[in-house]
Specification:
Residues 43-96 form the Low molecular weight protein antigen 6 PH domain. The chain is of the alpha+beta class. The chain has 4 helices and 7 strands. It folds into 2 domains: 2-43 and 187-205, no CATH class; 45-185, no CATH class. Strand 5 (77-82) and strand 6 form a beta hairpin. Helix 1 crosses helix 4 (187-205).
Length: 206
């Protein structure tokens, strides 16, 4: 990855210009920059399983169980709307621009499970990260509801909502028996950011 090359180059320059002492002085800043890149570009993800969705954002994780999900939208990014009024956006699934509309096909509409009489926006298309993620969530949401035999609150309309079931971790299982939305701070990245920022300031003042 390019960010890894930049980090290695930064380390090499620090050693070349200041030896081991130069590396020690610049190491906190290098760690800080690497942590920011990881948190913004590597960490974000959308994870789905039979219990619900986990949105892993820059510094926070959000577990949304199927029982708490009301609908899914994609205007600015994949957004989960919950029955208690929360709107949770996924950093990992942003919306695309309007030019995507021109590339929509009948296959896209079928793949997304959209109603014929319902407008299909660019952000919901299969050419948009938000659209791909939303289609996955909707498909698995419907599957989870079908498996549970439940058609109550949170049942997704054909074009706007659905659940998911399929990947390694267990996002919503950790939301507890009550099925509520759970927000968690990503302690690892936060600790690395705070620690490396503090050491960077100390190195600059030394």
């Amino acid at each position: 990855m390019s960010w890894a090359v930049v980090t290695v180059g930064w380390v090499w320059l620090a050693v070349r210009d200041g030896g081991s002492a130069g590396l020690v002085r610049q190491l906190p800043a290098i760690v800080l920059a690497a942590t920011v890149v990881y948190a913004v570009l590597v960490r974000p993800a959308v994870m789905v399983d039979g219990d619900g969705v986990r949105l892993r954002n820059v510094l926070r994780d959000v577990d949304v169980p199927w029982a708490a999900l009301e609908r899914v939208s994609t205007r600015f990014a994949l957004t989960l709307h919950t029955l208690d009024g929360q709107q949770v956006r996924a950093w990992a699934a942003p919306a695309s621009g309007r030019h995507v509309d021109a590339r929509l096909t009948a296959g896209d509409v079928r793949a997304l499970g959209w109603d014929d009489d319902e407008p299909l926006t660019a952000s919901a298309s299969t050419a948009s990260p938000s659209g791909v993620a939303a289609a996955w969530v909707r498909r698995e949401w419907r599957r989870a509801l079908a498996d549970a035999g439940d058609g109550g609150p949170g049942t997704p309309p054909a074009g706007s909502s659905a659940p998911s079931a399929g990947s390694g971790t267990t996002p919503a299982a950790r939301a507890g028996a009550g099925g509520g939305v759970v927000h968690r701070t990503a302690r690892g990245p936060v600790l690395w950011l705070v620690g490396s920022a503090a050491l960077t300031v100390v190195a600059l003042l030394a």
